[in-house]
From TrEMBL:
This is CLN3 lysosomal/endosomal transmembrane protein, battenin. It comes from Monodon monoceros (Narwhal). The chain crosses the membrane at residues 180-198, 270-289. Belongs to the battenin family. Residues 1-29, 65-90 are annotated as: Disordered. It is a multi-pass membrane protein. Residues 79-90 have a biased composition (Polar residues).
C-alpha cells in the first residue's frame, strides 16, 4: 500500500533480497501469531477502563443528580429532566466532560476481580507472549528494505545509525511533522466527529416509544460503537485503506446526519440509529488502525518513532475539541421546548 507519496515495493521483493537473515518459516509463523495475540490483548486491556467509563457516563451523571443516592447506581434510573419544558431527557451536565470524580466512581463500581484480571494480563502478555527482538545488525535493513519504505519527506536524510532516532534536529522534526499532516488532519476530524456524536449527541438521541429506558438506550449506543471499533481495528489483514481522508469525510457526514435528527427528530426507529452507530464505530476504528499502519510503512527507520508518537496527538486534539463544543450544544438543546 502506498501513502501520501511514492511507491512501495511489495513485501516479497524485499524479503527475497537477503533470505539468510530470515528465520525458518515455521518458527517465523509461530512468532508472528504469538506477537499478534500479545499485542491484541495489550490493546484490549489498555482500552478497557476507558471504554467502561465512557459507556457508564450517563449512569454516573444520573447517580450524581439523584437526591440522597450515596450507595449505588440505579441500573435503570427514573428519567428526571434537567428542564421540564424540554423535549429531551437531559442530565444537568453533558456526558462530554468525564472528570476525575467520574473516573473514581466508575473504578469503585468495577468488581475488584475484574480489575485484577485485566491488570494481571499486561505483564503476562509482555513477558510470555511477545518475542524480544534480537540484536540488530547495523546494516540489518539492507538495500531492499530501505527501498521498500518510502519516507514522508523528500529531503536527503543523514545515514541512520541504531539509537539515533531521538537525536533529530528541530528542522528534521518540523519537516517530518509537515509530511504527517495528510494523516494527522483526517484523524483529528474522525475523532472530533465521533466523540461529538458519542458524548454530545448520544444522550439526546432519546426515543420515548420503545421498551428501552433512556439509560439502556445510551448503553446500547456505546456498546454498538465499541463493537464497530473493535471489529475494524482487528481487520487490518483483511482490508487496507490508503485514503484515510475519505473515512474522515464519511464520519463528518455521520455527525451532520445525527445532529439533524436530534434537531428535527425525523428517524422513526431506534434501530436505524443502532445501524448508524455501528457504522460510525467501523469508520473510527478503520481510520485509527490504517493511519498508523500507513505511517509505519511510509517512514524511514530514523523518523518512524517520532512520526508515530507525533500522530498520537490526533485523538487527544479531536476529543478535546469535541468536548468544548458539545458542552454548550448540550445546554442549548436542553433549553428547547
Amino acid at each position: 500500500m502506498g501513502g501520501c507519496a511514492g511507491r512501495r515495493l511489495s513485501d516479497s521483493e524485499g524479503e527475497e533480497a537477503n533470505p539468510a537473515l530470515r528465520p525458518p518459516p515455521q518458527d517465523r509463523q509461530g512468532t508472528h501469531w504469538k506477537n499478534a495475540v500479545g499485542f491484541w490483548l495489550l490493546g484490549l486491556c489498555n482500552n478497557f477502563s476507558y471504554v467502561v467509563m465512557l459507556s457508564a457516563a450517563h449512569d454516573i451523571l444520573s447517580h450524581q443528580r439523584a437526591p440522597g443516592n450515596q450507595s449505588h447506581v440505579d441500573p435503570d434510573p427514573t428519567p428526571t429532566s434537567h428542564n421540564s419544558s424540554s423535549r429531551f431527557d437531559c442530565n444537568s451536565v453533558s456526558t462530554a466532560p468525564p472528570g476525575a470524580h467520574q473516573w473514581g466512581l466508575c473504578c469503585w463500581k468495577l468488581h475488584p476481580g475484574c480489575l485484577f484480571s485485566f491488570g494481571g494480563n499486561q505483564p503476562v502478555c509482555y513477558f510470555l507472549l511477545l518475542t524480544s527482538p534480537g540484536p540488530q545488525d547495523p546494516g540489518g535493513e539492507g538495500e531492499a528494505d530501505t527501498a521498500a519504505r518510502q519516507p514522508l519527506i523528500n529531503s536527503e536524510a543523514p545515514e541512520w545509525k541504531p539509537g539515533s532516532s531521538s537525536h533529530l534536529s528541530l528542522q528534521e522534526r518540523w519537516t517530518v511533522f509537515k509530511g504527517l499532516l495528510c494523516y494527522i488532519v483526517p484523524l483529528v476530524l474522525v475523532y472530533f466527529a465521533e466523540y461529538f456524536i458519542n458524548q454530545g449527541l448520544f444522550e439526546l438521541l432519546f426515543f420515548r416509544n420503545t421498551f428501552l429506558s433512556h439509560a439502556q438506550q445510551y448503553r446500547w449506543y456505546q456498546m454498538l460503537y465499541q463493537a464497530g471499533v473493535f471489529a475494524s481495528r482487528s481487520s487490518l489483514r483483511c482490508c487496507h485503506i490508503r485514503h484515510t481522508w475519505a473515512l474522515a469525510l464519511l464520519q463528518c457526514l455521520n455527525l451532520a446526519f445525527l445532529l439533524a435528527d436530534v434537531w428535527l427528530s425525523f428517524l422513526p426507529s431506534i434501530y436505524l440509529v443502532f445501524l448508524i452507530i455501528l457504522y460510525e464505530g467501523l469508520l473510527g476504528g478503520a481510520a485509527y488502525v490504517n493511519t498508523f499502519h500507513n505511517i509505519a510503512l511510509e517512514t524511514s527507520s530514523e523518523h518512524r518513532e517520532f512520526a508515530m508518537a507525533t500522530t498520537c496527538i490526533s485523538d487527544t486534539l479531536g476529543i478535546s475539541l469535541s468536548g468544548l463544543l458539545a458542552l454548550p450544544l448540550h445546554d442549548f438543546l436542553c433549553q428547547l421546548s
